[in-house]
Design brief:
The complex is a heterotrimer. Chain B has four helices and nine strands, in the order ααβββααββββββ. Chain B is of the alpha+beta class. The longest helix of chain B is centred in the first third of the chain and has 35 residues. Classes of the chains: A mainly alpha, B alpha+beta, C mainly alpha. Chains in contact: A-B, A-C, B-C.
Chain lengths: 281, 174, 416
Amino acid sequence: MFNTKTVLATLAVLAGLSGVSATQAAGEVVHIEKQSWSFAGIFGTYDQNQLQRGFQVFNEVCASCHGARLIAFRNLAEEGGPSFSEAQIKALAAEYEIADATADGGVRPGVAADRWPSPFETEQDARDANGGSLPPDFSVLAKARGVHDAFPFWVFNYFTGYSEGGPDYIHGLLTSYEDEAPEGFELPEGKYYNHVFPGNAIGMAPPLSDGQITYEVAEGQTAVPETVDQYSTDVAAFMMWMAEPHLSGRKQTGFVVLLFLVVFAGLMYGTKRKIWAGIEH
Amino acid sequence: MATEAQQSTTRRDFLFVATGAVAGVGAAATVWPLINQMNPDASTLAVASIEFSLNGIEEGQSVTILWRGLPVFVRNRTAKEIEEAKAVALADLKDPETDEQRTKEGHEQWLVMIANCTHLGCIPTGESGEFDGWFCPCHGSQFDTAGRIRKGPAPTNLVVPPYEFISDSLIQIG
Amino acid sequence: MSEHSTYTPGSGVEKWLDERLPIIRFSKEHLMDFPTPKNLNYWWTFGAILVMCLGIQIVTGVILAMHYTPNIAMAFDSVEHIRRDVNGGRMIQSFHAVGASMFFAAVYIHIFRGMYFGSYKAPREILWILGVLIFVLMMATAFMGYVLPWGQMSGWAATVITNIFAAIPIIGTPLLELLRGGFSVGNPTLNRFFSLHYLLPFVIAAVVALHIWALHVPGNNNPTGVDVKDGRDTLPFHPYYTMKDAFGMVLFMIPFVWFAFFAPDILGHPDNYIEFNSQVTPAHIVPEWYFLPFYAILRAIDFNLLFIDSKLLGVIFFGGSIVILFLLPWLDTSKVRSGNFRPMFKWFYWLFVVNFVALTYLGAQPADATGVLFSKICTAYYFIHFIVILPVLSRIEKPRPLPTSISESVLAKSHA
């Protein structure tokens, strides 16, 4: 009795919700094209080559204005990430000067354990250098952005485990600059038009252009196109890794745990039935 | 009838044992991460091994550096100190160790030691005491020019941490 | 219920202990022999599931507190430190965050089960009241816990929710400053929320103990709502219900683990990955999903009533929506407990559920004109259900005939 009612009620709830949501549809939703990411889904893992390319884009283009203060150089050598070699990381870290009160002159060359130094010392410095806009820190930015789905599509996200809204947004943002603001749009001085950015007037000039970065192709790898779209995808993937460095391991453990629970639940059900056998209830 | 009943008992027992075993595995696999989280984390382990440049430490000069949160003496010993250390007979030592065992071959002038007294952890002062080495002000332990315990309550020599020379002027500790 | 005691100490040591601290006797009576109606369905396993949820929150919470720093300069980064550097920290943190959501999902099912089967009716009023008290404590704990990561949603949730107290006439502003430890949400606020967030779960555990005590005096309600008549109606708690509850717990862990491992952030909000900035409010603040129905009620009130301004009135409705739950046993005066035997109640019950889900949905929507209008309708219905519909139903409804006993209804079902 309870069960048939449950079904009926669920249907009623869904009907009610779609009624309400129809009235809400007036609010504009920016359409952002979802990408297919290697790290999506139950078995998702990062593509090491993509992360290395993404790091190159970050390092050569973004890092002059954007920090990544929660990332340590050593993270770049960790398994499941870009997995650069220890030697590469050591050399990279040594290129940076790290403030250290105990060192001669207050600075010393970086080591693998150091955090990524921020390009500006204070928030005010950052604003002054960027026409009043603050370039956000990249450490967790990929999780601080998202894509809004209309009802009922967001409901499915709970069942697919969709967690790639951040990289989708970043890719969308980087590929959505327009040379001219549309007719009637008042673009403030020093701002650029972007149809994904909230409010459309963004302080960051289009950072990427086709052919801007030269990807080295290692032996046995296929070359990827050197386009804005590809750069954007790669840097978005790299930013997702920065925000969620243990994603691959987490999903692998999760799969084992889920499998365990299904088997355990089956055994528990059998045990429970055996114990209840012969009892009218 | 009897065999059927027996069979069903066996099946039933097997199910119970299997369920119990799986539950046990699950419990163990759950408990371990809850304990392991107390172990040193990745940021602590990242500084467990450090490199230190010996450049600029003149003969007869000591510096104290931090390694794993512990003070470490790095001393560029004088020829006289080395000679003194080598001249001591092992029989005179409370914790017998040769000077060679406490330094690296080819780099005998460098003495690297954890600076906490092996008695109760105070930091001894350098170039003092009856043996020209270190003297612990807390309880009066005296160490020689190789950091070996000679007199006083400390049970063992000052501890030499694991380290190696990467080049003549660069060591890696830990 | 010592009359059910079958415990005889087996050894001299047990006898010695039994005369001093009869803990084995107590456990045997209440955890093993306790007579439990034989017809409880799986909705009844949520009591045990909730105990498990509280256990998970306390264990993971104590661990997180070993690595977390309650200081506005370091809180945000220390949570990231847990996720990035602590051994297994990413999982422990996500079990705690997802665990809060799962805890509320389970408690809502538990509450709505009690509402359908009339588990709040005599002689279980105290049991129900303690349950509502646990729910209130859970809300306070979850709210303060949400502030700790010190993201944009954390800081603004703290700002908005503490502001609710400012609506109280005369003492409002001093009370607000007392709660915040300052004129705005800042370091003192974060620090005390951490302290209280650590304390309250143990208070909850104590009230849970009272809740179970109050359950064990009259015994469990059951799907027929008919009182237990004799031993044929019941089974000992162990092994029958320990196994059934354990199976329920394992099943419950499957969606729990799904979220914790594969979508740990989907139940949260992206804005909480931006560190709190007291000068910029996020474009669209929403509380966690489990607060949405009550948040919708708070926002629905945008009008003054007589001398009461809209802010205070919103707070009155918000508080009232919870206070009215305490009064439920006296609003529904029907002698029949189970909704299965109340043809009219059943429909109104499901209407109430739909209305509650609609409030949840509305709480997440921007506060525009249509949203507020629907919120007003749903808020009105929420109160009408308790104040008008339940009392009236109790008078006019003609319940279906009840089985004479649990065992009779069980037999009828199995022979049907």
